[in-house]
Write the structure tokens for this entry.
Amino acid sequence: MVFEQAGQGAPGSQVWGHHASLAEVYLTPYLDLEPESAFVATADGRPVGYLVGCVEDVLFPSEAVRLREAIKRHRLVRLPGPRRFFLRAAWDTAVCRVRRIPIAGELQDPRWPSHLHIDLMPVARGRGTASGLMDLWFERLRAAGSPGCYLQTSLENTRGVRFFESVGFRRYGETPVVPGSRFDGKRMHQQTMLREVLPVAVLSPAPRSAVDAGCLSAAPRDRPRRAAGAPTPRAVGRPRRVRTSGPRAPRRAR
């Protein structure tokens, strides 16, 4: 349920419109392979959002590999909706290559080896929930010793881009075409964003007097206040799976 509703209303959120296969690209592998990097936000005891991530990109199956497996497993080319999407994606790719227009791809840079996907149900938005999930994620990255993190969203997702900038990410590189994706009838573009993972002591240096007294203590970055009754982000060891239609438990985020 969370997976199907998360991202609702965002440009291009439907992608090829098959929840079970989308989950196997953007959610389930993270729960299976790196459950310690999964965080869930709850409200009244029910999940309303999540963040999943990968600390070391090179140790994780690429998106292209996950996509190929999902297409094969669910026979997506036989389904009308996904087939239209993938045919359009193939056409976009061919046109862009002929015209030498950059197309979307994963970032491969050792300075930013970690990446994430985050999704919230509409009820959890605008209440500090996403910021709380981000805090938990960057605590995880600092503990793991990661130097930096990247994410990829769409340029057309202006609300999402503004949020990521508000929590310390910055835009990076070109905005290549995302083959197959459309918003208001036009091609969509990938926006890569970066954030360094700073040590806690760098985030909040102790006062000079405390240093002089030998009482240096580093506190984590102040977290934004959540509205009263706002969903509560929490870390989970082996995350509870949120079922979608399909043979496997879902896992996705954009």
